[in-house]
Design goal:
Elements lengths: L2 E5 L2 E4 L4 E7 L1 H6 L5 E5 L10 E4 L2 E3 L2 E7 L3 H8 L5 E8 L10 E7 L6 H10 L3 E8 L11 E4 L6 E2 L2 H11 L4 E5 L2 H13 L3 E5 L15 E6 L2 E6 H4 L2 E3 L8
Parallel strand pairs: 9-10, 9-13, 10-11, 11-12, 13-14
Antiparallel strand pairs: 1-8, 2-3, 3-7, 4-5, 4-8, 6-7, 14-17, 15-16
Amino acid sequence: MPYKLLPIFKKELINNKYFIITFSDYEMADQCHPGQFFRLKNPQQNFPILPRPFSVNNIQDKQTSFLIKIVGESTKNLFETKIGENISLHGPLGNGFKIARNKKVLIVSGGIGYAPFPFLLKKLEKAKDEIVFFHGGKSSDDIFSANVINFTEDGSVGKKGLVTDGVEQFLQKNQVDIVYACGPQIMLKKLTEICKQFNVDLQVSLETIMACGIGVCCGCAIRIVENGKMVYKKVCKDGPVFDGYTVVWDE
């Protein structure tokens, strides 16, 4: 879990809500596993005091990318950082997705929950999985690829409606071995109910506020059912990926 100070190698504006920043570092890229995250901060900025967590979006040519949504001052600061300026990176952190092999796989994401899946998709393709990818957003601003089955709440791109509705209809007609998911908690809760109905394994990557990122502060604790008992787990250290059926969604 090393700290690195690296210059931004590349920056890509997706739209007025999302952007991608990329760092070139062989050692860092080699250490990453799909579903893990880094804590990023511009060391020249006083705010935020602590780095913010971001999933590894992709690894290509030993370059590590992060898809970021502009939602507040900290992400705005990262967006305004120029190519060649240094960013502090701490990671890779957490436990990522378990890679299925020779399975029928469904990926489901919502909004910025799309972030970890381009990297995972590469690993699943190498594992010779049969993959279908559903993604949902509120509008066209939340859509990142035309190569997946898109849903938007306003109908501006893809199919109109919630991505979970599309998943339920898909599972009624198609066999799937495992679902990988990341997105808003309300989406993941509904998805868990759907997957349970069709007896499909489910791995979920949780989004939550973090402080230390290494399991010391307990600021990201969630409730998990383990061996029939309710226990607390830390999203940063024990996750962010969990068995969806073990998460206590009703908080």
